[in-house]
Write a structure and sequence with these properties.
Mean pLDDT: 81
Distance between the termini: 41 Å
Oligomer: single chain
Structural class: alpha+beta
Strand content: 15-25%
Order of helices and strands: EEEHH
Number of domains: 1
């Protein structure tokens, strides 16, 4: 999966989004984040987030409505898991 375009439903700001799970969302701002009215009012992005609450709600709504699909990552298992060569035990 690749990043998908999305506009904030509150201010219309366009971003690129890739949603992996409830806890993991990648956002690429297409303009300076300070052009977001919420970020501009605060003067910065929230310390524990990479977007404003309005954009976060827009992303979550788009996932619920299936207009933004969640990416699925298949992690390697068993012998497909990369191993460090030359590692010594004990």
């Amino acid at each position: 999966m690749t990043m998908q375009p999305l506009n904030c439903r509150t201010c219309g700001l366009a971003v690129m989004v890739e949603k992996f799970s409830n806890a993991h969302t990648s956002i690429q701002w297409l303009a300076d984040a300070s052009t977001c009215p919420v970020v501009s009012m605060r003067g910065h992005l929230p310390a524990d987030d990479d977007c404003c609450p309005e954009l976060r709600q827009s992303i979550d709504s788009a996932v619920r409505e299936n207009t933004l699909t969640e990416s699925r990552i298949e992690l390697p298992t068993g012998t497909a898991i990369p191993r460090m060569s030359g590692a010594r035990s004990g």
